[in-house]
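Researcher: Structure for this, please.
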Amino acid sequence: MPKYFLGLDGGQSRTTALIGDENGRVIGVGRGGPCNHVPPGAARTKFTLTIGGCVKQAREAAGLAEDIAYETACYGFSGGPADKDAVVGRMFQAGKRLVTHDAYIALCGAHAGAPGVITIAGTGSISFGRGAESQLMRAGGWGYVFGDEGGGFDLTRQALRAALRFDEGWGPPTLLRDALLKATGAKDANDLMHQFYGGKLTRPQMAAMSRLVDKAAFAGDVVAYGILTEAAQQLAGITLAVRKRCFGPKECAPVAYIGGVFNSTGLLERFRTLLERDGLASVVAPKYAPAAGALLEAYRMAGLTVKLSGLPEAEK
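Model: Predicted structure, token format:
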């Protein structure tokens, strides 16, 4: 009897479900919106509707019955697995299931299930790795109050701090001030700060403005260049901490970069230089997206090593 495997990536911006056959061929894909919180009430309803709809899309695309029992299933969620395992267990049948966090499936996808390290720099930042003995280590990911150095929100925060210092007369001039005001319509840096404190600007919206730091640095702004350089050093720092704990002192570890902050060529090249200068790390682009990582982990749980085929472009 044919066996089928399910991998799901549920994040803060979108959800993707993949169903594969026993040969590693993706036969069904489903997509939906965010699903990272499951407290009682409307949020739980949204969670179940989103992942239920995604898996249904994938199942129908694969031509499978509604009561299908998957051989194994792996679910990766932003916000962690603690409040989601029981909910998922009631929704889908699987011989074995793993409910984990989004960094784990991102790691599985980035290195196609092999040992390695990832550093994610999106709104926040975290580094996560798995060594040859399957040991898992992390650094960073403390949230925007206590950490997330080098993430998009932190870059914009540093830019706004530089603008505030300039406005008050104790910081150097910077292109970042006018760029931030133009992007938000704020009358000055103080007004922009209160737009965030007052809830008019969300953390993701602030993080999205980090591209202004890269643009200003490219235009020769010394302050912006310093912010990018410091961010690269901080991201390299958490990455090296994970590499040292997952790999031996003479092992070269592959490090994949993930997240919009790495769209900055200057930051990425500085990050690469810092990590590769001792020959103990090789910085690479991720092989697969997190949803494919979840599917690969589902195969691994069944004792199978497969080469994925039939993946849509968005998941490669």
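Researcher: Any notable elements?
Model: The longest strand covers residues 69-77. The beta strands are 4-10, 15-21, 26-32, 69-77, 93-101, 116-121, 125-130, 136-140, 253-258, 281-284.
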